[in-house]
Write a structure and sequence with these properties.
It contains eight helices and two strands, in the order αααββααααα. The chain is mostly helical. The protein has one domain. A two-stranded antiparallel sheet has the order 1-2.
């Protein structure tokens, strides 16, 4: 027999579990929160605190048979889908810096050079890692992490627990994913276009002087010019990265509003 003071503990634990699903899924897919440097325990605590505050703002009733029923599975699936969509929208805007880093690294001749990225934990080109760290600083400077938390709380009003996201919202997220490469090329344009001109000049030199060792001249020239151009174009590229992050936040807002 359960003691009277512990009669509602199981129901409360299930309620906490449901409250953690959407914020936890969003933090898992979003940048900064989903990095390996953030402990899982911290993400769980943030998800519980945020989920309980958001769940108290809407009317919610647990399925009659509990979570281990068809209605409970649909509830969990809807919460996971909503959280992943909101976090992934911001991740798409954040990943534009990786695309720009790939383009610039290949143009500089550093496509073979890679290092461990602190955000994803994967091996990425050195320029991509630099732009990733820059994007992280810019996201924190523009309070993007706080905006994401606000959008997660706001999503409970348009998509209450138990409701599924609209098909047009998911379709809009898929279309937004196509802009990733375009935005990434826009970020890399100031440096990438100049490096392409340098490659054209090296090709002209190779044709005019066949005896010239192109690898011993072209690679150092492209590398030095690339580093100088990165230093010169850093302010312009920072503005482009912030624009990509704003696009990701705008798309996350559309999803949070159920549009």
């Amino acid at each position: 027999m359960i003691a009277p003071g512990l009669a509602g503990v199981e129901d409360q634990l299930w309620l906490w579990l449901v409250a953690m699903i959407r914020p936890g899924a969003a933090f898992l897919a979003a940048p900064v929160f989903g990095t390996q440097a953030v402990p899982v325990q911290l993400r769980l605590i943030l998800s519980l605190a945020l989920g309980m505050a958001a769940l108290n703002s809407v009317a919610f009733d647990m399925p009659a048979g509990g979570i281990a029923t068809f209605a409970g599975i649909i509830l969990v699936a809807g919460e996971v889908l909503a959280g992943l969509a909101i976090g992934f929208a911001l991740q798409i805007g954040y990943s534009a810096a990786f695309v720009a880093g790939e383009v610039i690294s290949n143009a500089m001749g550093l496509g073979f050079s890679s290092m461990m990225d602190p955000a994803s934990g994967q091996s990425t080109p050195v320029v991509g890692t630099f732009l990733s760290v820059l994007a992280t600083f810019l996201l924190l400077a523009m309070d993007g992490h706080l905006m994401l938390i606000g959008l997660i709380v706001k999503s409970y009003e348009a998509i209450p627990p138990g409701a599924m996201m609209a098909n047009n919202a998911i379709y809009g997220l898929v279309l937004f994913g196509g802009t990733l490469f375009g935005v990434g090329l826009t970020i890399a344009l100031p440096v990438g276009f100049a490096l392409i001109l340098i490659q054209v000049v090296m090709a002209m030199l190779a044709r005019s002087a066949p005896s010239l060792n192109l690898f011993s001249v072209g690679l150092p020239a492209a590398l030095i010019c690339g580093l100088v151009l990165l230093a010169m174009a850093a302010p312009v590229m920072s503005d482009a990265i912030m624009g990509a992050l704003r696009l990701g936040l705008d798309q996350a807002q559309f999803l949070a509003e159920g549009r």
